[in-house]
Structures are given as C-alpha cells and as structure tokens.
TrEMBL record:
Pfam families per the UniProt record, alphabetical: HATPase_c, HisKA_3, PAS_3, PAS_9, SBP_bac_3
Superkingdom: Bacteria
Lineage: Bacteria, Pseudomonadati, Pseudomonadota, Gammaproteobacteria, Pseudomonadales
Organism: Azotobacter bryophylli
The protein, known as: PAS domain S-box protein
Coiled-coil positions: 588-615
C-alpha cells in the first residue's frame, strides 16, 4: 500500500539524486588539474651531487608489496598491478627517473623473508613499528589512514567512545596494536574481533554489535555495496595509521633519496591519491535511464563552465590575497624582529653592570638604568629630570657646556676621567666616567657610563700599604731578601730586588750586589760554587723552586753558612719570578755538627750496651738452662721416688704426684723456651742454621709458609754480627705475624761481593713508605742495629703489595757489636 509520504518521497527522488550529483561534482572539482598544483607536477627533487651519482649507479629498484586492496591489486584480465601504493611509487619513479621492478607477496612475513634474502630494495605502505626498525629504514609518512567507527545513521553527530556502556559490543577488524590502544584508552569498551570487514558491518546491520571499527581503506572497499547504505561514519578512534616507504637498512642513501622524492610530491597530489583510493563512495543510487543521464550531462556541463569561471576568478583573487598576506607577514616579521631587538637592547641596558645616564643639553637626566639608580642610591624613576649638578656638585654649567661641545664634536675620541658623585644619602661615590654622544630621532644626548671604583681605590691603597710593609719587612729581616726575574724562556735571569739586609749579612750594600756581574755568585766559597751553580741551573731550567745550602765569604773575609730558599712563580706567559731569602745558618750548622758528633757517640754507647745485653742474655740463658735444669731434674727424680714408694698407699696421692710431674715437664719446656728466647743455642751452630731454626718456629707458630734460601758455605761471621742479623730477623718476623696479614714469607741470605745481604719479604697488605724516619719502635730498633753493624736497612712497601726488608752488612769491617763482643 502506497502512502502519501512515500509518494512524495518518490516524486522528489530525482531532485535528491540531482542534488547529490552536484555535491559530488563540487567534491571532485579540487581534483581537476589547474595551474601549477595539478597532479603530476611539483617541485623538482633536490639531491646532493653524491646522492645523484648514487642514483645514477642504481637506476633500477626492486619494489616488494603485499597484495591488499586498495593499496596493491592485480587486474584479473590484463594482469596489471594497480592501487594506491603502486600509483605513488610510479610518481616517485618518474620524479627520480628510475625503473621499478615489482614483486608481489601474499603476506607480510613473505615480504620480510624476501628482504632477508636480499631480493627487494624497498616496500611502500608499511607502518613503522619497533620490530620493523630493525629491518627497514622508514621514510616520512605520505598517507594517513584513519580508523573509523561505523554505525547506523541516527543524526546525533560524532560519537564519543567514552560514553559507550560496557555491555554494548564493538566489532573490530584491526591489528592487535590498535586493539591494545582501544583497551588502554577506553576500558569501558567490549571488543569483539571478527574475520573480515564485511562481517563487522553485517554484525552492525543485524544489531549483534553496536558499532564496527575499520580502517578507512577497508571501509572504502566494502561500503560500495547497496545494503550498507544505511550505515554511516560516526567517529574516529584517534589513532591513525601512517603509511611510509620502507627501504633496506644497508642502503641509507636510498632512504634519503626516497624522502627527498616524497617531499617533492605536492600535498594536493597526495590528497587526490587519498580520495581516489581510500575514501568511501556515496551510497546514493541513480536511475540508469538515458533521459536522466542527458539531463545530468547538460547540468554538469553548465555547472562545469560556471565552476571554471568561478575557480579562475577565485584563483586570481587568492593569488592577490596571498601576495598581500605574504607582504603583510614579512612586514609583521620585520616589525616583530625590530621590537625584539629593541626589547633585548633595553633589557641589556637596564640590567647592565655599568651605570648609564642619558643627559639632555640642559644637563638634566632623561634616562637612568637600574645599575645607575642602585649606584646613586635612588629609587626607580627618582633620577629622571634631575640636573647633573645634583649628582656631581663640582660640575659647573661652564664646564658642562665645554664637555658637551667636546664630546659632540668627537675631537680626541671618547672622553673618560675619574670623579666623585654624590649619592641620595649624601655619601660620596668614587666613579670612573666615560662620555659618549647619542642621536636618537631628533634628540641629542650625552651618554654617561659610570663604573664604581670604590673597590679599586681600596685595593690600590691596600697595595701601596702592602708595598710599604714589604719594604719595611725586607729592611728589617735578619737576612737577605731578593727577587730574580726572567722575562721569557732563554733570556738571562737577573736580580730585580735585593733587600737592605745584605749589608748586615755579607757586608755589601744592595747597590753593590745589584751591579752587573756581581750578584751572589761572587760571595760563594770556591769549594761550593759547583754545587751552587748546579742547583741554580736546575731551578732556572725547569722553573722549579731553588734551595741551596753552602758557605759565603763576607766582605771582611769571614765564612758563613747560609741557606737560600726561593719560590718560583709564573705571573705571565714565559715570565718566571723567584722570590727568596738568604738566611745565616752558621749557628745552626755548628749545632748540627755538634749534634752529629753526639749522635755518633750515642750510637757507639748504644752498640756497647747492646753487646753487653747480649752477653747478659747469653749468661742468663746458660744459668737458667743449667741451674734450673738441674733443680728441675732433681725435683722430677724425687717426685718419681715418692710415686714409687707411696703411690700405692693412697690413690689420690698418685694423681697428685702425676700432676706434679706434668707441671715439672711444663716447667722444663718453659725453661728451654726462656733460654732460647734469651739466646738460641742454635746460634752457636752458625747464622744459617739459626735462620732455618727461626723460620721453622715461625711456621709452627703462625701457620704461614716460609720459603728459605740460605747458602751452604757461609763465610765466618763475628758473633756480634750474627746476633745482630738474627735479632733483626726476629723483629721482622714478629711484625709480619702481627700486622702484615701475609700468606707467604720469603727469607734469603746471600753474599754479594764484600757484603752479606739478608732479605725478608711478605705478600701482606703493606704500608706507605713516605721517606721519613720510621716511627715504629720495631723499625727504629732494626734500623739502629743495622747502623751498629756498619750496614744499611732498606724497606720497600706499598699498600696492598706486600713489604720487602733488605739488610746489608760488610763482611770484612768488624762491627761495633763484634768489637764489643
């Protein structure tokens, strides 16, 4: 049954169709080739010479593509390859003048396998992924394919995915990455994956799903079916697919050339490519009648002529507007640049560290920067319009006009001087003034640059005071103060200053010593000149500090011991200055010689006492061993007799007598240990045997292995020398056990020429040897024992690298201990 509403819709259908065709024509008009923006034309490809040479050497490219509509398809009748990616690559090849060799694949995996095999060079239409970056070099994107939301037409406008309820299903035919994006961005969605775009749309039509999510290209292919005319695009998920040209990674030149070629393709050409291949068509139906198409043809022709005229007029008008807009933009840019420069200049002047005043011809201040206001103690704006005489009371109008004329004429260049300005609180400001002239527009100004020289004057006064103090100190120092200077490397070193204390030290005034060819060298005693010149040359050649001790001969012929110390400084490139002083150390030298003699006597006394102590130790050891040994032997016999006679009478008595016998045995061992500690009997068998015995005892006591190397035939040694070396060995092993934390100890006794060398080494933690005298009593004792033996003791140690102690004593010269013994 036909209703009036349906009849009205039937009568108005041709007009609706005609209106739809007019809208389609208006959409296609921008795609027509007009002017310089027509398809196929664009800017020439800009390549470097090296890139052009590479392109000429590689004139044929192997292009791989996955067969997928509408990007790449094969015509079933003619076998030709067509599609969006094919058309893009053809335009790129024409722009770069290269040949293309196409290879088609059914899957992305097959395409990547061909890349790994080296059979393709590039592939269009790929999306950039982290996994793909390891295989390809990607160009900038040339097509943007949106993921669209399709649903029934409801006239409610665009859809917000966040408003969907959880129970409303959403059919999706998109990659897994897009589904992950939808799950993370819209957790309220219930996604249902389908196998094809048609299935997704059929679910929406059958109301099994509220909406479907497809990419723009898929929708353009399936939306041609008439049954899908009831559906419409209701939204965009906000995550587009960016298509790029991927090239092989081992040809970076190819990626650069492809980018340059894509940039040369006009944006309008890419838009046409997008509309032609990816945009979904209209679903309006048109009656296939001849009369209808004639009417449509006439109407289209008329509309085309009108549109061409309008387009020509609009293009001319747009050209004029673009030129005017470009000129206005340049003018605005120049004005903005000038304003920016002006702001920067004003900011620089306002925040400069130099005070700046602009003074008009009537001597009134027209501008003052922040620094000038702070220097003069005024608040912002208080200096403006003040006469300069308020700031500088000594400035009269006559002198002001003279300064104005002089600076304005430019005679003599910039004018500068020092003066004093008056601050707002009445205090004085020492300032360095520099004057300049400025024309700004039609006005003329005298620019005053102020620099606060308070600190400079204070430093100058301090310098003058310091120089006066230096002169006073140098004149009163009980020595000779001097300064040596060398202007550049290779130039002679000359005295620049000698204090007046020279006359009290050597009898010559400073003026005599400063004469050419005199200096300090003529004061040095002849025997000491070689050492003096050697130390001086070393200091001068390497710019080192100079130190020398020797004897001067004064003007009266008296010999004096002096100490020269000079410190090197480098105030400028190549210039070296030595500041030093000559001290009279004659009294100290006499005391030093007396002290050395006293030390020698003390060392002889110490050697004698050590010899006496060793003799006493030997005597005590014999007494302990013989006397106590006899007593303990008798006590042990008596105890044994008591045990034989009375142990059977009382079981407790047997136990007590057994304890007494064990204690007597322990006492026997203690007596032997004491006797060995005082003087090991093994020393009577020779030093080599004593060292071996001591090494075995050290191993038993500490469980540290000792590697021993002792000569078989050792020359005969005096008893005192053997005892001294043995005591040094005992002290060294004691230190190793207490402090070294060693794993192995090496002992070596060898004859080196006329000397006997004892080396004790360990692989323990070591310590820092700073060259000073040892502070440990053990090390001091070993050092003194070596000196008593007329020998030397050397210690080589570093933290973490162990310690080696070497003792050398002469074989022929009798030692002090030997003589005492």
């Amino acid at each position: 049954m036909t209703t009036p509403a349906s009849a009205a819709r039937g009568r108005s259908a041709p007009f609706v169709r005609l209106l739809a065709l007019c809208r389609l024509l208006l959409l296609l008009l921008p795609c027509l080739p007009f002017g310089a923006e027509a398809a196929g034309t664009g800017t020439p490809v800009k390549l470097e010479p090296a890139q052009r040479r590479w392109l000429e050497a590689h004139g044929q490219w192997r292009v791989g593509t996955v067969l997928r509509a509408p990007y790449a398809q094969i015509d079933g009748r003619q076998g030709n390859l067509y599609g969006a990616n094919v058309e893009l690559m053809e335009q790129l090849a024409a722009a770069l003048n290269v040949r293309l060799q196409w290879q088609t694949f059914q899957t992305q995996e097959a395409l990547e396998s061909a890349l790994d095999a080296g059979s393709i060079d590039l592939a269009p239409g790929l999306g950039q992924t982290p996994a793909g970056l390891r295989r390809w070099l990607f160009s900038d994107p040339y097509l943007r394919v949106s993921y669209l939301v399709v649903g029934e037409r409801n006239g409610l406008g665009s859809l917000d995915l966040e408003t969907l309820r959880l129970q409303e299903p959403l059919a999706v035919d998109v990659p897994e990455a897009v589904r992950d994006y939808l799950r993370s961005s819209y957790p309220n969605l219930r996604l249902e994956a389908v196998g094809s775009p048609q299935e997704a749309l059929q679910r929406v039509l059958s109301r099994q799903a509220k909406y479907a999510v497809l990419d723009e290209a898929q929708l353009g292919q399936v939306a041609r079916e008439a049954e899908l005319a009831e559906l419409a695009i209701v939204g965009d998920i906000g995550m587009p697919q960016l298509l790029r040209v991927a090239s092989r990674r081992d040809w970076p030149q190819l990626a650069v050339i492809v980018d340059a070629g894509l940039q040369a393709i006009p944006a309008k050409t890419l838009d046409q490519l997008h509309r032609r291949w990816l945009q979904q068509p209209s679903h309006a139906r048109v009656e296939q009648t001849l009369g209808f198409w004639r009417s449509v043809g006439l109407l289209l022709g008329l509309l085309s002529l009108i549109c061409l005229a309008l387009l020509f007029s609009l293009r001319r008008q747009r050209g004029r507007l673009e030129e005017q807009l470009l000129a206005a933009r340049r003018e605005v840019e120049l004005r903005d640049a000038a304003m920016e420069e002006l702001r920067l200049a004003k900011f620089s002047i306002d925040h400069s560290t130099v005070g700046t005043l602009w003074i008009n011809w009537d001597s009134r201040v027209r501008y003052a920067n922040h620094m000038a206001e702070r220097m003069l103690g005024y608040l912002p704006g208080q200096v403006i319009d003040r006469p300069l005489s308020d700031l500088e009371p000594s400035l009269s109008m006559e002198r002001w006009h003279e300064l104005w004329k002089r600076v304005r004429s430019g005679d003599g260049g910039p004018l500068g001087f020092e003066t004093e300005y008056r601050r707002a609180d009445g205090s004085q400001l020492p300032a360095e003034v520099s004057l300049g002239f400025l024309r700004y527009g039609e006005a003329e100004y005298l620019v005053v640059f102020l620099g606060d020289i308070t600190e400079r004057r204070r430093a100058l006064a301090a310098l003058q005071e310091s120089e006066a103090q230096l002169q006073s100190i140098a004149a009163n120092v009980p020595g000779l103060v001097f300064r040596l200077e060398r202007q550049s490397p290779g130039s002679p070193v000359e005295f620049a200053f000698i204090g007046e204390g020279s006359e009290g030290l050597v009898g010559y005034p400073a003026a005599v010593l400063l004469q050419p060819g005199f200096g300090l060298l003529n004061l040095v005693r002849a025997d000491d000149r070689v050492h003096y010149q050697r130390t001086q040359a070393w200091a001068f050649d390497g710019c080192h500090d100079w130190h020398w001790q020797g004897r001067f001969v004064t003007r009266s012929g008296e010999q004096r011991w002096v100490d020269i110390k000079a410190t090197a400084r480098c105030p400028a490139d190549g210039e070296v200055v030595w500041d030093g002083i000559v001290w009279d150390i004659s009294a100290n030298k006499r005391a030093e010689l007396a002290l050395a003699e006293s030390r020698a006597q003390l060392r002889e006394l110490s050697a004698h006492l050590e010899s006496v102590r060793e003799e006493e130790k030997a005597h005590i050891a014999r007494e302990v061993h013989d006397e106590l040994g006899q007593v303990l032997t008798g006590l042990k016999l008596e105890t044994s007799m008591c045990e034989l006679s009375y142990a059977s009478l009382d079981p407790g008595l047997r136990e007590r007598l057994g304890n007494m016998k064990r204690q007597i045995a322990q006492l026997f061992q203690l007596v032997r240990d004491v006797a060995s500690a005082l003087r090991p009997p093994i020393l009577d068998a020779g030093l080599a045997s004593a060292i071996e015995w001591q090494a075995r005892r050290f191993e038993e006591r500490t469980q540290i292995p000792c590697l021993l190397e002792v000569p078989e035939n050792l020359p005969a040694l005096a008893d005192g020398k053997a005892v001294g070396l043995f005591r040094i060995l005992q002290e060294a092993l004691t230190n190793i056990a207490r402090h070294a934390q060693a794993h192995t100890v090496e002992l070596r006794l060898e004859v080196e020429g006329e000397s006997l060398c004892l080396t004790i080494g360990d692989d323990g933690r070591g310590f820092a040897v700073n060259g000073e005298r040892p502070r440990s009593f053990g090390l001091v004792g070993m050092h003194e024992r070596a000196l008593m033996l007329n020998g030397t003791l050397a210690i080589d140690s570093r933290p973490g690298e162990g310690t080696t102690l070497t003792v050398r004593v002469p074989l022929n010269n009798p030692s002090t201990l030997a003589e005492a013994g």
